[in-house]
Design brief:
about 180 residues, alpha+beta, Outer Surface Protein A, domain 3, 10 strands
Length: about 180
């Protein structure tokens, strides 16, 4: 695969991720004023609303957006909450069936900030900022196909995998501080 073609694919993925992050932000900003107006109507004082969480349901009563500190374990397609890798706080989006489909959160144990997008089968996109610097953009599926772009003080790295086997890597040497 030519390096220019590879770079084109990565840049396209980064643009799509940016668009999706902007969409989540716009949805949040669209819903926030409605929630705040309801709170203002219930209170005559100009006070701060202090909560551990906020759930937005659709007309059918299905949880679609959840703000929380911490957030619960993810809801699977089977309607059962499955164990999360560790506690997180932030925003989770869910589809019309209530299945978690992504989020924007912080890792409560390791202090990383991240944005994820999930298919109905599992996580597919991870965009992560490490607490001490360095970023990861990881696009993957359950078959072991993956495009990973990382940037650390030692420099950037791009790795492409097909069925868990590396098919392209730039630079071709590995560096010890590249993490997932």
């Amino acid at each position: 695969m030519k390096h220019a073609t590879l770079l084109t694919y990565v840049l396209c993925a980064v643009r799509i991720l940016g668009f999706l992050a902007l969409t989540v932000l716009c949805l949040t900003l669209q819903l926030a004023p409605k929630s705040l107006r309801a709170v203002e109507a219930a209170s005559t004082k100009n006070e701060v609303l202090l909560v551990r969480g906020l759930i937005v349901e659709d007309a059918a009563g299905v949880e679609r957006i959840r703000l929380g500190a911490p957030l619960p374990d993810p809801m699977g397609t089977d309607g059962v909450r499955h164990k999360r890798q560790g506690p997180i706080s932030g925003l989770i989006i869910s589809d019309a069936k209530g299945t978690e489909r992504g989020g924007y959160a912080t890792d409560d144990q390791h202090d990383a900030a991240f944005f994820t997008l999930d298919s109905r089968k599992g996580q597919e996109v991870l965009f992560l900022a490490n607490p001490d610097g360095g970023t990861n953009l990881d696009l993957f599926d359950k078959l072991g196909n993956e495009a990973q772009l990382t940037v650390f003080p030692s420099g950037p790295k791009l790795v492409l995998k097909r069925e868990k086997k590396v098919i392209a890597q730039l630079p071709t040497t590995t560096t010890p501080d590249i993490e997932r």
